[in-house]
Amino acid sequence: MRYEHVRTNSDRQTIIRVAGLPAPVTLLHVTDSHMNASDLTEGTETLAESIRLYNFDALDTQTRFDKALAYADDLQADGVVLTGDIVNGATAGNLAFLEKRLSGLRAPYLYTPGNHDWEYPGRPWGEATRSEQYPKFGPFTAGDPAFRALEIGGVLLVAVDNSTYQISEAQLAAFRQALSRGLPTLLFMHIPIYVPSLLPDVVRSWGSPIMMAAQGWDAGLMKQWQVEPPGEATLAYYELLLSNPADNLIGIFCGHVHFAHEDAFGRGSRQYVTAAGFDGGYRVIRLLPASGADDSAGKAEQA
């Protein structure tokens, strides 16, 4: 697999030339919108308290999300990818809002949950609550919030839910199978993979290394963030991404930390962290045939 990451000097656009790609593919990546369309009558005081604690303006975040989806239509995007924390909790109001907005998209979409999507007021944070809330995301994930693969224009888009900082054996096996198809593959997750150059900014912003398989945790911080040490499947997944054995993992795209970042990862791949949607962030991903590509597509986009 031959591919080239083109420098754009823009946090809002990624261009990758891919050998053998039959035609250009354009995607829009949106993450961390942190919307709340909850009706306070849905729950108890814990729901109202949760809304106050997140401190995001409900109307502003919804407006920015609507603007991003409208931009996808304007771009005539071939696909839209949403990598978690799109809503704050799987409340009835939030799910109804998502269903209405996403059903109006012209392009197919791929959705993977973030920790705030399934976090629910009054419920403990962790795997038990995620499993409890998972069925609510079935309509947005073709019935499987943990893993989904979608082929668009000869490119395989893979969504893996790593919102507990862990990967299961089933997800690892499914991802191996996806890579074995040999298609140029883009991986989408909520939480970034540990990259040394990303660590300083993450710790500066959050006081903790909130990346998957990160170095720099101590026991106190792990307890505070309710993060467990990476399990065997998570470590094997990390090594698989680094080794890129079929040379067809061309990019990793994620969010979670609320700022943009780009750096090399593993053998020939790059990781792109997209800025938060609640702050107007998004990323246009342009995949171009390696020969005869039109450089004019590399102009920075402005929504």
Automatic annotation (TrEMBL):
Q: Which Gene3D superfamilies match?
A: 3.60.21.10
Segments passing through the bilayer: none
InterPro entries per record:
Calcineurin-like_PHP, Metallo-depent_PP-like, STPP_CPPED1
Give the highest taxon in the source lineage.
Answer: Bacteria
- Domain Calcineurin-like phosphoesterase, first and last residues per copy: 26-258
Q: Which Pfam families match?
A: Metallophos
The protein, known as: Metallophosphoesterase
